[in-house]
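Repro case for the chain-ordering regression, as requested:
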Amino acid sequence: MSILVNNKTRLVVQGITGRDGSFHTSKMKAYGTNIVAGVSPGKGGQQVDGIPVFNTVEDAVKATNANTSIIFVPAPLAGDAIMEAAEAGVELVICISEGVPTLDMVKATAYLKKKGVKLIGANCPGLITPGEALVGILPGNIFLKGNVGLMSRSGTLTYEMVNQLTTNGIGQSTCVGIGGDPVAGLYYQELLQMFEDDPETEAIVLIGEIGGDAEERAAQYIKEHITKPVVAFIAGQTAPPGKRMGHAGAIISSGSGTAAEKIAAFEAVGVPVARRPVEIPVLVKELMEKRAKA
Amino acid sequence: MKIHEYQAKEIFSRYAIPVTKEKVCYTVEEVVETASSFEMPVVVKAQVLVGGRGKAGGVKLARSVEEARTAGEQILGMDIKGLTVEKVLVAQGIKFNSEYYVGLTIDRNSKSVIFMASSEGGVEIEEVAKDNPNAIHKFVIDPDLGMTAFLARKIAFKLFNDFALVKQAVGMFQKLYQIFIDTDASLVEINPLVVTDDGQLLALDGKMNFDDNALFRQPAIEALNEPDEDEKKELEAKEKGLSYIRLDGTIGCMVNGAGLAMATMDLVKYFGGQPANFLDIGGSSSPQKVIDAMNLLLSDKNVKVVMINIFGGITRCDDVARGLVTALQQLNVDIPIVVRLSGTNARQGLEIIKEANLPVVNTMSEAAQEAIRLCAACQ
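-- result from build under test --
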């Protein structure tokens, strides 16, 4: 098993004829992801990489039974694209687009909640279940099938961490980039519970950063609901207050949302926090061995 | 993006939210002229895009035109947290009985706009949040419904017993929500909201911040932007597809991805160095981006060594390497450079770097340590 995506994923790509959409469609397909359709308004009837293109997500779902959608459309159109996918009946939407207005995300997340559809992102690298499905822009070759579930607000930092795990022989069940925006889809709590319920996942790595209090809430949730070992890392210990560090959501405002507060929250509930990326595989190994003995 | 108090109150006025009679002034003469046409007293307030003006002496009460002149002379040109005051707001002094706080912002947890209200107005709300969090009432607004009259009433009854005030507040709160939505704000605050001697609600001070991601559809708001020197550099970088924030250290960092860029700064600090900046060159980096990034780093004279940390996903390491070699040919670089390349096309990238006789390291830890060593050596 794994979470969210696997070999049963039937993917539709919204924005498949665009530069990023077509490029990553070929990468995902090469990895082995089952891509059944693409959507590009006005380009219905065409093909990209042998994949049929439709004018609407509804047409695509009706014709191909797609159950998951990935979005590569420009940010001003992304909120609408997310709602279109949910309305068409997919179960999971992944939005890669960066720079989506926050109020568009407020509206879209409320609609998806009503429809019971899950969302990852926006402003995220997507997710991967190694060996089964790559749904996003992650470099597939660095991942290794295994038993560590990983979630992260950042893209390249995820690659760095995964590379540390893989080169130390620690494989991953599913790795999820939850995105760097203040209002986003599935977040730590939901994913922690999914990994807790997934028999294939034995340990969890949580990569957070400055801004908001989601890490503090996650720490509380781990204390109350999670029995599997969790290891954390927080980026932005040297970030100055009041400045947006690249991600729209990475900002220390009015003195709260600092790395120090988040590290303290995790350590208070017994979750070890790596001070450097290289410590992650060491901590994971330690905890997994301890759990195996217990 | 932030705007000044007077600009926020201009927006309030357009939505018929009562504000003080006031005028923005750029010179002492204008202050005197404005004060002469107002009834006494007046308040002279520094207009700078930073909090804590009052504590810094940037807000003064004047009981006569002469006092207003003195206040104008003192405040115009003064320095508040590194910013020079270039304009002041001259506002009619108001007698009031009580002060409140109301504000709207985005709540990440509920993924909604929330309305915040407190009877402890007139002080910084962050302090209230710390000392007495129960004094702040929070209400989640359903995006489908918006600010309904019943919700506005519920909030108003938390603040006021007098039904006449509740009725005024309901209209005001609905308008504030409308402003938030119409302008793609990320924060709208009235602090303090006062009840005047004659029983009117009035915004004595106002604050608005906006969602940078939505500025493309808010040209009127974007036109109000007044970036300071650091922000100008950040905007310039943004136009080239770079995300840059200057810090005070000596080790210039060039990284792809915001999270990795933060982690790189943290690592430099961990090993005892000081990062000079945050710089994310983004995904799919073309050689030109690397040249622009190098230019940006070298424009900071504090930078003594450049550390490049790339984990190729969409970014191809050979693109970065080619850009770097071109940058070194075009620019006069007289400081050491440390390069770490991993991920997509790293092998090809490293060959290019080696041919150019640049030092190469294998991990980000090694890169940070080498950068610190070189930095110490060149000082």
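Ordering looks correct now. The mean pLDDT of chain B is 92.
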